[in-house]
Amino acid sequence: MTSTGPTRVCFELRVAPDLLDEYVERHTPVWPEMLAEIAAAGRRNYSLFLGDGGRLIGYYETDDDAAAQAYLAASPVAARWEAEMARFFVGLEGRPDQAATPLAEVFNLEAQLASAGETPSTEESDAP
Known about the structure:
The model has no long low-confidence stretch (mean pLDDT about 90). A three-stranded antiparallel sheet has the order 1-3-2, with no helix packed on it. It is α+β, with helices and mostly antiparallel strands and about 130 residues long. The protein has a single domain, classed as Alpha-Beta Plaits (2-Layer Sandwich), CATH 3.30.70. It has helices spanning about 20-25, 30-40, 65-75, 75-85, 95-100, 110-115, and strands spanning about 5-15, 45-50, 55-60. This is L-rhamnose mutarotase. It comes from Microbacterium alkaliflavum. It holds the Pfam family rhaM.
């Protein structure tokens, strides 16, 4: 199956449990200049989800993940942000934005509906 839409990237990191509150505070809000760099890199629909024990799941969409990674790797703003964020993560070597390993996507509703020749619907069905 060939994808015609954006690349969806999901990754997992582990935040040190004793630093969870500070990690959340640092993201409420993120520096405006860092937000601008993320957008300029071509990442959109970017979210982070925090679970029990410091499990952090990130998700974003982009048209060219390699170009987005390269842009952020060269960004002085991102370098400063990532240097400050590095201490929050457990078992990670290097910059968090460059060292996180993407998770494999095994299911996407829209892609499977398109492959089956159907379109997603948000309307309620009249069936009982």
